[in-house]
Fold:
Amino acid sequence: MDEDLETRVSRQFSSLYLTLVSVLVGLVLADLFGQVHARMVLWPLTLETIRTWCQILGNTLVALSAWVTYSHLGLLRKRLPTIWDTLDAALVLVTVPLNAATGRHEAWGYFFWAAAYSLLALCAVHINVRQATREPALAHLPRIARFGGPYTFLYFGVPGYLATAAASYLHLAPPALEVAAAALGPIAGVLVTILFMREWRAAVLLSPPSARPDERPA
Structure:
């Protein structure tokens, strides 16, 4: 029997969403690497170039971490899309101004946009989780976005990076402190991904078999 239009759209939504997110993350990374080749100084190693390396690694790893979050929560979606799904995916592009501030002599701009990224990434996580939990079998999923969960770094990142930006702007932050703050980015990107995958897997295993992405009927 032919499936109705709503069922057909719901079945294809997950793949469409994953494609959109993958394209946007690819654009973010292409923008970053284009700016690396165009203007960034990576050698010889000084505190400033080490800071630039940390910024590049941080931007790359947080973009990949965002893709992991979007893709794995997107796999759970089997419903009609809403405007919130588009807004949620578009928030990936907040990394673009962060890329533009990477590798600059004055570091305060980078830390300001890192704080903005942390804030908007938190919004994206909460929207993403809220949209995923529109399926009743995933009602327990919001715990992933809690303070103390995988995204705790984002909660601390907003005030932490803002304070660092202010100190850098006022020339109160020594170069070593700026390097240390920039190095937190790649560390956070790795840890957030590991912790998210652990909790995502646990959340999926708690759901009924019919709601799991690998056990849905074709």
About this structure: The longest helix spans residues 5-39.
